[in-house]
Amino acid sequence: MQIIVFDLETTLTYQKDKIPEIIEIGAAKVVPGKNGVEVDTFQRYTFPAIERRISERTRKFIGLDKENMPTFIPFRRAFAEFMKWIGNDSEYYLCTWGQDDKRLMIEHCARFGLDFNWMRNYNDIQPPISLLLADRKQMSLKEAIDTAGIIQEGRLHSALVDAIHTAHLLIKYNKTVHLKENTPVENYNLSSSLYITCRSCKKSKYYTAFGRKSRRCEACLQHRKKLEKAAEAAAVQQS
């Protein structure tokens, strides 16, 4: 089966209630074998439907030249072209470096009412390669390619460049990474993790409103800190 490695870049969000929007889809097709061979690439830039602009911070982060900006197209069109590029053959694996891009793609498909049936045989290859290279489950892509001795080509934080480097890691360690098969239904169930119920306020909020290790939303955590500071100040006054 062919392997499709994809990567996404999004708008930079600094407010917890804002949802990151995909602005670049990058992918590489890999044919599995003894050494593995990269065979084709895909790249599209998508215009953010909610934010309606590309901020200066986002532009600089993904390395876009202000004087030579690429053509941005609606997400629906970019997704349709991505599906056409994948092709009609249903026998393939999908791979990413970390699960954030899978979550983002599922969220966008749900938001735009797009088909989920293509999301099959998904594999996060970050844990097995990170365990091999650094004896831990999570490494940055930059750290992984440096440790693996893969020469960096292009600027990281471009979805296409990141997808190509992820493909190079998969090619190099294809004997270590054992890809699994799964169904669109199994992957669709991940959408339930897009919204989390806060333990404090009991409200269901989008996952970006929470810290990585907390089940309480940032608003409740900030309120809790204020109460703790007020209690400390009151204790000092009483003493």
TrEMBL record:
Q: Which InterPro entries match?
A: 3-5_Exoribonuclease, ERI-1_3'hExo-like, Ribonucl_H, RNaseH-like_sf, RNaseH_sf
Q: Which Pfam families match?
A: RNase_T
The protein's matches in Gene3D superfamilies, at most eight in alphabetical order, are given as: Ribonuclease H-like superfamily/Ribonuclease H (3.30.420.10)
Among its keywords, does the record have Ribosomal protein?
Answer: no
Tell me the first and last residues of the signal peptide. none
Limits of the Exonuclease domain: 2-179
Family matches, as SUPFAM superfamilies: Ribonuclease H-like (SSF53098)
Keyword field? Exonuclease, Hydrolase, Nuclease
Q: Which CDD domains match?
A: ERI-1_3'hExo_like
Q: Which GO terms label this protein's molecular function in UniProt?
A: 3'-5'-RNA exonuclease activity; nucleic acid binding
UniProt keyword Hydrolase present:
yes
The record's annotation in PANTHER family points to: 3'-5' EXONUCLEASE ERI1-RELATED, 3'-5' EXORIBONUCLEASE 1-RELATED
Entry protein name? Exonuclease
Q: What is the originating organism of this protein?
A: Brevibacillus formosus
